[in-house]
Write a structure and sequence with these properties.
Layout (H helix, E strand, L loop, with lengths): L1 E2 L5 E10 L2 E5 L12 E6 L2 E2 L14 H12 L3 E10 L4 E8 L2 E2 H7 L4 E2 L13 H13 L11 H4 L17 H8 L3 E11 L2 E6 L4 E7 L2 E2 L36 H8 L12 H12 L3 E9 L5 E9 L2 E4 H7 L4 E2 L1 H4 L4 H17 L14 E3 L5 E10 L2 E6 L10 E6 L2 E2 L16 H12 L3 E13 L13 E11 L24 E2 H7 L4 E2 L12 H13 L17 E2 L5 H10 L5 H29 L3 E8 L4 E6 L4 E7 L2 E2 L8 H12 L3 E9 L5 E7 L2 E2 H7 L4 E2 L11 H14 L27 E9 L4 E6 L3 H12 L18 E5 L6 E8 L11 E6 L5 E5 L3 E3 L12 E5 L2 E2 L8 H12 L6 E9 L13 E8 L6 H7 L4 E2 L8 H19 L32
Parallel strand pairs: 4-7, 12-15, 21-24, 27-30, 30-33, 43-46
Antiparallel strand pairs: 1-2, 2-3, 2-6, 3-4, 5-9, 6-7, 7-8, 10-11, 10-14, 11-12, 13-17, 14-15, 15-16, 18-23, 19-20, 19-23, 20-21, 22-26, 23-24, 24-25, 28-29, 28-32, 29-30, 31-35, 32-33, 33-34, 36-37, 36-45, 37-43, 38-39, 38-42, 39-40, 40-41, 44-47, 45-46
Helix pairs in contact: 2-3, 8-10, 10-13, 12-13, 17-18, 21-22
Keywords: Acetylation, Cytoplasm, Endoplasmic reticulum, Hydrolase, Membrane, Nuclease, Phosphoprotein, Repeat, Transmembrane, Transmembrane helix
Protein name: Ribonuclease
GO biological process, one term: mRNA catabolic process
Length: 1025
């Protein structure tokens, strides 16, 4: 209680048991959370009519008297003073002021209590007794309250109480009450709070006294008492002295209190943590307050389950939601299932937030392990290139250059799951409505600008899509986000709410996931606690509820409208595959593969030839590009014929796989026509079953686009008479030649070899602009491609990581072959790395040594366990950016050979440096290294390396210094190779003549062996630079 002056205190009215008594509690303090001290004060010198007790009835005007005082004071701040006490009955009497008004005088002036004149000689009287008596006479004269002279008013002021209100709850028909009032708000007054989630209420106007368990939640238990409390059956009349020491103890004032006192427990149990705080929370908001009760159901013990709404200013608040949000109750599934979906969702969300904040009863909560991880600050805008399925799209990031390997990003829609598309190669057919879901997104998104908000990633098992540990080798990381269509146009059948471009400004456009779910083509994933989810999860659940109620899509009894039987002319039927699988046990594997492919081509070609006349007669045919196989070859879906075909441009060819500009041609076609509506005109079919012809997107011939960009050549050896727009194709190719674009960058007028006579000798070599990052022995080194956007992207991502202290031993156990983050010892920067050597028997100390290979730079070093971290899910899982190379046409001594150290030192001096850039001409690719396992393995680019401002290659410089020799020449060599070797041989001869390096003792070459002489016994083995 807050002290005032001269024995006066400030308090707040917590409850009003009767017309002449108040339960007061101290004012809340920030320094002392939880229940506050309480005091019950009876107004001095007043006697109010008594409410009914067990088996009895109200005194006249008892309810009206209590209600007047309750409505006047409940929840308000008052000032009080204790004036006298009666120890024999343990009661305190005093004066209470509401503002500057004496509450006792207000009660008497309205005629709701009588003034007791006895007790003055004992000092047990109000100091305002004379004024109270005057006000009583005034009320009598004006016939106020219980002094009314209206005929029958006194009899009508006695409530007709049902058995439940006078201590006999056995006659209450809970199920009947529920059926009569299901979902309808009932007015009530809370008479008692048993615990935070259980209240006892008078339901008005019939005064049914019921116990209501708050739906959807459960607060901590208050425990059980050893035995029932005894209740004195004292019959007090209006003549009993108020505060007379000789009077017998008074019985509880309300039937609610009597019911509480009569309930006994079988065994004593203590209260749960935060039980008292939860009960107090409910009391200060609901006790003796007008509330609305919505009955939700009845449990098997006939207990009423309902939602309780209490007043808070001009609004009403949900008690269950408030308790859960403050960490004073937990979500309970069995009773929540009686509630509406929106209410359940709000409770579940509130509990999750309380757990995250570790509020009160969740203080020691330990979240379960999850395979999802939040992604932050990775929002981007771009154009949709491909719709993989109803819940997965590929978006081209606007911030990355066209053709970059990282430009196209796969985005899985957060928190939804659509029917699977299946896999034709494994004879898996699309699930019902899978095609509908994909077609919806294709028609609405392809080529459109979208805003992507990346939200979380999950580690998924490769085999069956089940969650997998983050460090598992047979797992992959999937990124999830919300996608918004920036300029949406409402389509036929769209959900009305989903079509709104912004919800109170919280969404930047049409939420694509909400659109899919609202059409009934997907389901919302029921996430576990602490599992990352969509930031718009509530909107998705609401859309799902609308789809269910509207019986749309997968929730309807209708079958999918998409075609179920499709002739796929690009594949062999499964019957042939099964038959060859049976033969597998009898034939050698290479014979099987040969036969299988032979049958595949024959079967596909025969099917295609059967369809050819129909496609030729149809002229221009509408189609959809399902997939871009290469720059000039595609898989098309023709709805009119219900078939899928392989289609290629007639007379136009792009670079083949692994050739320069092949990937750029594919990227251009994906941007231009992937999953777009196009028109085709079929001319013929080749021997592999691929249809040849022309393709238009809108009014533009797509082959012209390729030729204009310098990404394709026109092949006219068979003539152009049958090719539509042939003159446009020729003009486009000539334009690219004049501008020397892409494949024509080295084109010289008059030196072009015709397509008919071109050979492999004239094949253009790939030239890369690189920087050298690490030098190994034997002429091998690592490079990074200059201008590769992946380098800066990964560096920025690594720099943004907030890397904390070393992980606890046992929680992170890197093994050989695992990808991790490692701290480079030279500059303490964190980089992607692969473990190539780990301690046997697991990690025992933070100083345990690990050997790691930095996959983006090519260097390798030994680090401690404290310098390792798990690879963050936000770091792109792209292959290593360091490319292993070797000098073409040379044999360079290894580090174990004589002059091996000198060769490595010279190569380092010539190549290493942050400002040195080189042109690397790829002579060939050596794939004999197999799968990358660490430093010095994997695919090797055999290159001629030339400094940016130099005419002398590093290859020639190594020969000139006598630190390498030419590889053994062959009898027959192509002209270009012979010319290169002749030029390099001149530098080797110069070193021989000057007796430099390996030639200091004469000619070391031998006709019988191609190995360098062993290291001299006198020379010690040197380490790397």
């Amino acid at each position: 209680m807050a002290a005032s002056t001269a024995g006066w205190f400030k308090a707040k009215v917590k409850a009003v048991p009767s017309g002449d008594s108040l339960v007061l509690m101290g004012l809340p303090s920030n320094n002392k959370p939880g229940p506050l001290p309480e005091k019950t004060i009876t107004l001095s010198s007043l006697i109010a009519p008594r409410l009914a007790r067990r088996g009895g009835k109200d005194e006249q005007y008892a309810w009206e008297s209590r209600e007047f005082l309750r409505k006047l004071c409940i929840g308000k701040e008052v000032t009080f003073r204790v004036e006298y006490t009666v120890p024999s009955i343990g009661r305190e009497f005093g004066s209470v002021y509401l503002g500057d008004k004496n509450i006792a005088m207000l009660v008497v002036s309205e005629g709701w209590a009588r003034v007791r004149e006895q007790g003055q000689q004992k000092g047990e009287a109000s100091p305002h007794l004379a004024e109270l008596l005057r006000l009583q006479e005034q009320a009598k004269d004006q016939f106020r309250g219980q002094w009314s002279n209206v005929p029958g008013a006194a009899e009508a002021a006695v409530r007709n109480l049902p058995p439940s209100a006078i201590g006999d709850p056995s006659n209450l028909d809970a199920m009947g009450l529920l059926n009569e009032n299901k979902g309808r708000p009932l007015q009530g007054i809370v008479e008692q709070v048993r615990d935070g989630s259980t209240v006892r209420v008078y339901l008005l106007p019939d005064f049914q006294f019921v116990q209501v368990f708050v739906a959807g939640i459960q607060s901590p238990s208050m425990g059980r008492r050893v035995a029932a409390e005894t209740v004195n059956e004292t019959n007090l009349t209006n003549d009993d002295s108020n505060g007379d020491a000789s009077a017998e103890p008074r019985a509880p004032l309300t039937s609610a209190q009597r019911l509480s006192a009569s309930s006994a427990a079988a065994a004593a149990t203590g209260a749960d943590p935060f039980a008292a705080e939860a009960k107090y929370f409910t009391e200060v908001r609901c006790l003796n307050r007008d509330v609305r009760i919505v009955l939700e159901g009845v449990d098997k013990f006939s207990n009423l389950i309902g939602s309780v709404f209490y007043p808070d200013g001009e609004t009403a608040k949900d008690l269950a939601l408030e308790l859960v949000e403050n960490g004073l109750a937990k979500y309970v599934e069995w009773s929540a299932n009686m509630m509406e979906e929106d209410a359940r969702r709000r409770l579940k969300t509130a509990e999750l937030q309380a757990k995250k904040s570790r509020l009160r009863m969740w203080t020691n909560y330990v979240p379960p392990a999850t395979n999802s991880k939040a992604i932050r600050d990775q929002n981007f805008t771009g154009k949709v290139v491909e719709v993989v399925s109803g819940d997965c799209i590929i978006v081209a990031d606007d911030s990355l250059p066209f053709g970059s390997p990282l430009a196209e990003r796969r985005v899985n829609l957060s928190s939804i799951r659509c029917p699977k598309m299946g896999n034709p190669r494994r004879d898996e057919k699309p699930a019902e409505y899978a095609r509908d879901a994909r077609e919806l997104l294709r028609s609405r998104l392809i080529g459109k600008q979208v805003n992507v908000q990346m939200e979380y990633s999950r580690t998924i098992g490769m085999a069956d899509g089940a969650p997998a540990p983050a460090a598992s080798a047979d797992s992959r990381v999937m990124d999830f986000g919300s996608v918004f269509l920036l300029s949406p146009v409402k389509g036929e059948g769209d959900d009305a709410s989903a079509a709104v471009t912004s919800t109170a400004g919280s969404q930047p456009g049409l939420n694509v996931a909400e659109l899919v779910v609202g059409r009934g083509f997907g389901q919302v994933i029921k996430h576990r606690d602490f599992e990352e989810r969509s930031n718009y999860y509530d909107a998705l659940l609401a859309a799902e509820a609308r789809a269910i109620s509207g019986k749309k899509g997968i929730y309807s009894a209708k079958a999918s409208s998409q075609f179920k039987h499709i002739n796929d002319l690009t594949m062999v039927s499964n019957v042939s595959f099964i038959s060859f699988t049976f033969i597998l046990v009898c034939l050698l594997i290479f014979i099987l593969i040969y036969v299988y492919h032979l049958v595949h081509f024959q079967s596909s070609a025969k099917k295609a030839r059967d369809f050819l006349p129909s496609l030729q007669r149809s002229g221009r045919i509408p189609a959809v590009v399902e997939y871009v196989l290469s720059g000039h070859r595609f898989k098309l879906w023709i709805e009119k014929e219900t078939c899928s075909i392989a289609f290629s441009f007639s007379g136009v060819r792009c670079p083949g796989r692994d050739e320069p500009y092949s990937d750029e041609a594919i990227a251009l076609m994906r941007r231009k026509i992937m999953q777009r509506n196009v028109e085709i005109e079929v001319e013929t079919v080749d021997r592999t079953g691929t249809f040849l012809g022309s393709l238009w997107e809108g009014k533009a011939n797509v082959a012209v686009t390729l030729l204009e960009a310098g990404l394709a050549k026109l092949q006219t050896s068979f003539g152009t008479d049958r090719i539509p727009d042939a003159h446009l194709l020729e003009q486009a190719e000539q334009s690219a030649k004049r501008q020397k674009l892409k494949i024509w960058e080295n084109y010289v007028e008059g030196e072009e070899v015709s397509n008919a006579t071109a050979t492999a000798e004239n094949k253009q070599k790939e030239v890369l602009k690189v920087v050298v990052t690490e030098v190994l022995g034997g002429g091998k080194f690592y490079v990074q491609t200059v201008g590769d956007q992946r380098v800066s992207s990964i560096q920025q991502q690594l720099a943004s990581l907030n890397i904390q202290e070393a992980p606890v031993i046992g929680a992170f156990n890197p093994k050989k072959g695992d990808f991790v983050l490692a701290q480079f010892s030279m500059d303490n920067s964190w980089n992607r790395a692969m473990v190539v050597n780990a301690p046997r028997g697991g990690v025992e100390s933070k100083n345990d040594k690990f050997e790691v290979f930095y996959v983006d730079y090519g260097n390798q070093e030994e680090v401690t366990y404290s310098q390792l971290r798990p690879l963050d899910a936000s770091v792109p899982a792209t292959p290593g950016l360091a490319q292993l190379c070797s000098l073409a046409f040379l044999k360079v001594p290894s580090l174990d050979d004589e002059f091996g150290d000198e060769a490595a030192q010279f190569l380092s001096e010539q190549t290493l440096g942050s400002s040195l850039q080189f042109r690397a001409m790829v002579e060939e690719r050596d794939t004999s290294g197999g799968k990358v396992k660490g430093q010095g393995t994997g695919t090797v680019l055999v290159v001629t390396l030339v400094a940016e401002k130099s005419d002398l290659s590093i290859n020639a410089a190594m020969l000139q210094e006598g630190l390498a020799r030419l590889e053994k020449r062959k009898r027959w060599e192509p002209k270009d190779r012979k010319s290169i070797l002749d030029n390099l041989e001149a530098f080797q001869n110069e070193a021989k003549t000057a007796r430099r390096g390996i030639w200091q003792y004469g000619d070391v070459e031998s006709d019988d062996e191609d190995e360098l002489p062993p290291l001299s016994a006198a020379k010690k083995t040197g380490g790397r630079r």
